[in-house]
Target: Amidohydrolase
Amino acid sequence: MTSPAAAPRPYRRIATEEAWAPPEMFDLFRRILGEHPEDDPGFMSLMGYYALGDGERPRFIRERMVDTEGVRLQEMDAAGVDHQILALTAPGTNPLAAAQATDLARVANDHLGDIVRKRPDRFSGLAAVPFTAADAGAAELERAVTQLGLKGAILNSHVRDRYTDSPEFLPFYEAAASLGVPVYLHPNAPSAGLFKPLHDRGLDGSMYGFGVETGLHLMRLVVSGVFERFPALKLVVGHLGEAVPFWLNRIDYMYGKQVATGRYAHVKPLPLKPSEYIRRNVWITTSGMPWEDEIMFVRKMMGADRVMYAMDYPYQYEPSEVELQDKLPLTDEERFEFFEGIATRVFDLEL
Ligand code: CA
Model:
């Protein structure tokens, strides 16, 4: 069924957090789940469902995930989405050891490069990165951007329980900053330490746990000084900023108290407030969060030029949510920026 949002309009809708995977990823994950499922309960919860599940929803997701020529284009047209920025779905290469992660990233990026070359009007791509490689995937990011035309990197939260501010990932951030491409910080199943209290109540997934896990990564990146070290680094965060914009004033206030009292000897104070790094280095998307009250609040907290549209296809394919965002109380110019302008600049798209 075609949504009213599919009608002609004076802007393109660029959806910025859209999931994709090559069939090889599902084959590999099915093999791993068959061998060592107990090693990684978060991975088992996430991919045990989406890669192995035979219910209606996992089959719906798998069919769309590997497609860029059939049902995906039909559903983009029906919902009025002109362009998707595709990224290897969570957990990406993160659960894999270096050699396997490198292989999967190369396969995914080569495949995504082909998709983008074939339909540059409909698709752009973010690079999968082998974060467990010795250079944290810096070389593969550079290859994907300079040789394959991909527009940034996808970082699916923790890498085998290592948080994204860990020192071994600095070469990756350095490469992203020097290439001038954004890093999209995306959820993953919670790390081992966070998994149990969330999973006990069925809260480990996108309902709640993803936001807790990913918001924690964002805050760790800020207070660890990654943005102080790489002022040009661009980070994109979905789901309206994983609740961090709601906390921003309290974060600044309590950070100030902690610094003033020297409470944590192991945490080095930074010259800027947390909110100053977040408003300087971070852009927010509305993936899975189409509601007016939340979007207008986050625009106010972050600045309107930092909040852009995303759908979260195919996990949250709801054409009515495009209509909701079409009706946001914005001027024509603001609506253009929200759906097209900001994404075009942040991801350096040539549409
Ligand atoms: Ca997503």
